[in-house]
Structure formats: structure tokens, C-alpha cells
Amino acid sequence: MWILVLEAMVAFFLLAFIVWWTMYSGKKPTPPAQKQVATDKDATEKLK
User: Fold this and answer.
1) What does the alpha-carbon distance between residue 48 and residue 37 come to, in Å, rounded to a whole number?
2) SS3 for the chain, per residue?
């Protein structure tokens, strides 16, 4: 019986770790205001 509890705990912690890993990994998106400023700056430089 204790082996089933241990197996369930390992499976739960593995699932929680995978969810945590995928939630906090990857590139963070830049706010839209910064994207607009960079686009306007690039457009101004292209006109010169």
C-alpha cells in the first residue's frame, strides 16, 4: 500500500514540476509601448 502512495506522490510532484517549468521558461514578451517606440524610432531612421 505504501508503494502506491509513494508512486502517486512522485507522479504528482513530477506533474507539478513540469507545469512550473513550462510556465516560467521562455522569452518574456515586451510591453506594447516599447514595441511602438522602437518601431517609430526605426521608421524615423529609415527616412533620414
Assistant:
1) 17
2) CHHHHHHHHHHHHHHHHHHHHHHCCCCCCCCHHHHHHHHHHHHHHHHC
Rounded CA separation 18/12 (Å): 10
The pLDDT tens digits for 1-48 are 999 999 999 999 999 999 999 987 766 666 666 555 556 666 566 665
Place of cell 509601448: 33
Radius of gyration of the chain measured on its C-alpha atoms: 23
Q: Domain limits of the chain? A: 2-47
